[in-house]
């Protein structure tokens, strides 16, 4: 096969590409001398903090003490957690640069994860609240009224005029947990446990 460079009258291209010296004249392309490596960042410190259902209903602000290790020395600090009404279990709050800082690295983050304490009366289902009420068979057939202590310390009166059958659920709109945005709230669901008599009397 004919040498394609022969048309230029020699063993190389015009101007002599060989003069580039293996591209050494371009500074070696070994990297800019001012480029620096990015410092690494340690893994975030995660803390789980339990809150009562009342706190998650109304919102609360609390301060927590943390201890950071910076270049081998411990440093106490205080962070403020502002829990908004309607926050749920699993909500995360990140404080950037408030974590440990090993030598030669950037400061890590601290992450607080919201947990929910069990409540003696209510269970949370999304933005709804569930309340269990024991009643007698006579109440289920004839109707009755009772009061529920709410999370914001009200006495909510509930009137039952219909016959309560097994599995019946009374829904009270707007008496559940608040949504994270706006003033809307979920519902209160009342489930009834009918207590039947153990024996029949004549």
Automatic annotation (TrEMBL):
It comes from the Eukaryota. CDD domains: DnaJ_C. Keywords: Chaperone. The keyword Chaperone applies. Residues 49-197 form the Chaperone DnaJ C-terminal domain. One of its GO terms (molecular function) is protein-folding chaperone binding. GO terms for biological process: protein folding. Coiled coil: none annotated. InterPro entries: DnaJ_C (IPR002939), DnaJ_subfamily_B (IPR051339), HSP40/DnaJ_pept-bd (IPR008971). GO terms for cellular component: cytosol. PANTHER family: DNAJ HOMOLOG SUBFAMILY B MEMBER 5, DNAJ HOMOLOG SUBFAMILY C MEMBER. This is Chaperone DnaJ C-terminal domain-containing protein.
